[in-house]
Amino acid sequence: MANIKSQKKRIRTNAKAADRNRAVKNELKTRLKKARATAGEESNTEDVRLAVKRIDMAAAKGIIHKNTAARRKSRLMKKVNAAG
User: Are the beta carbons of 34 and 44 closer than 8 angstroms?
Assistant: First the structure.
């Protein structure tokens, strides 16, 4: 355990950020899975839109890298277009 006051605060701050990042990544995975599962259906456009929105939000917050976001969106769109 740290002795320095600022380091104790840093540990708490890092824990909060890690929890927040984990929640965002989990939602991102859920949205992507749902969008891929409904790839050939009519109601898919809403699922894809929400998945892309979550990818963009995660990239904007720095949770995932912008190139990672672009790659994930590209792969998702390729799969959706191939199915439908």
Answer: no
pTM, two decimal places: 0.85
So what's the pLDDT on residue 11? Answer: 96
Q: How far apart are CA 54 and CA 14, in angstroms?
A: 22
- Per the CB < 8 A criterion, the answer to whether 36 and 79 are in contact is yes
CATH architecture of the domain covering 5-83 = Up-down Bundle (1.20)
Determine whether 9 is exposed, middle or buried from the number of CB atoms within 10 Å of its CB (0-12, 13-18, 19+).
Answer: exposed
- Would you state the structure tokens that stand for residue 83, as one six-digit string? 């199915």
Ranges of each domain in the chain: 5-83
Tens of pLDDT, residues 41-80: 887 899 999 999 999 999 999 999 999 999 999 999 999 9
